[in-house]
Design brief:
about 300 residues; alpha+beta; Pseudouridine synthase; 2 domains; 11-stranded mixed beta sheet; 6 helices; 13 strands
């Protein structure tokens, strides 16, 4: 099988709006069986879990048939399975659809809800919820918001059109506006454009600024002030991980409720929704690459600390 062969369609249906896991066996390796490779590869599944999945016929090939525990290793082979999921605490906030047509869905995501399945957040994600609620199993995300950030997210309906919408973000053709609440600093001259190089390392929770050519650019404006608190308008020109949070922290005005900047704190326990990050994806504007329509969307959400400073 060629290294460039595209994967066949998934032989397993979605479960609760979540796709089955697809694994392609490496072309390089000395494993005797498919089982031997997956046991070594899927160490996070826990002792005996992969063997039990083979025994129950839960790992299948492209034809939808169970892969036998002693099936010989075939470089480039695809296998699928549904990962056993731990119970998730439901995020008790609505996920609002602000626009829907035959090509896209724009949702207004609440704080604490991940955009797509990742880590321990699988069914409690915007993508899985929308697939279930709208009956759109082919729905995919064109971009992603941090789990702690609320606001507008663009999803695509047709798989063959996803690339066109993703290209908008890659080519910086989407105009995005965010809103953040942070301390007011009378000595900070605004508006200003912040440029720096941001590095986000796998396995490290917080990103950091490093020396080198800037890869992150954010325009920052003061929108409103109430005593020692201010509302800032943020216009990112790039999309690095945690970019807005890193840049406001570098200015000495970290976003309220941020568990990573300026200091990394213990992860918030599941089910604790008391202190949302005060960051909102407020506006999303772009020319639709499929229909040519000029889209302008505005979030209907408000930041909690601005409307109710006692919380």
């Amino acid at each position: 099988m060629s290294r460039r062969t595209p994967p066949p369609p998934a032989p397993l249906p979605q479960r609760d709006g979540v796709d089955p896991v697809r694994v392609r066996l490496p072309f390089d390796g000395a494993w005797a069986t498919v089982r031997e490779h997956l046991v070594e590869r899927l160490t996070g599944a826990g002792p005996g879990v992969v063997e039990a999945m083979f025994g129950s016929g839960l790992i299948v090939g492209a034809d939808g048939r169970a892969v036998a525990p002693d099936a010989p290793y075939e470089p480039g082979m695809f296998v699928w399975f549904h990962r056993e999921r731990a119970p998730e605490v439901p995020v008790p906030f609505p996920l609002d659809v602000v626009y829907r047509d035959a090509h896209i869905v724009v949702a207004d995501k609440p704080h604490f809800l991940a955009t797509t399945p990742r880590g321990s957040h699988v069914t409690e994600t915007a993508l899985a919820r929308l697939r279930r609620e709208l009956g759109l199993p082919t729905l995919t995300a064109a971009h992603r918001l941090d789990r702690l950030t609320a606001g507008l997210v663009l999803f695509t309906v047709r798989p063959e059109e996803r690339g066109a919408y993703q290209t908008l973000f890659g080519d910086r053709l989407v105009r995005k506006e965010y809103e953040a609440l942070a301390p007011y600093d009378p000595t900070l001259a605004l508006p200003r454009t912040v440029r720096s190089r941001i590095l986000k390392e796998r396995g490290v929770r917080a990103a950091r600024e490093v020396e080198g050519e800037p890869n992150a650019v954010t325009h920052v404006e003061l929108a409103e002030r109430r005593g020692g608190l201010a509302r800032y308008r943020l216009l990112p020109r790039t999309g690095q991980t945690h970019q807005l949070r890193v840049h406001l922290n570098a200015l000495g005005i970290p976003v309220l409720g941020d568990p990573l900047y300026p200091e990394v704190t213990a992860p918030v326990p599941p089910g604790d929704f008391r202190r949302p990050l005060q960051l909102l994806a407020r506006r999303l504007e772009f020319t639709d690459p499929v229909t040519g329509t000029e889209h302008r969307f505005v979030s209907g959400r408000t930041l909690q600390a601005w409307t109710d400073p006692q919380k």
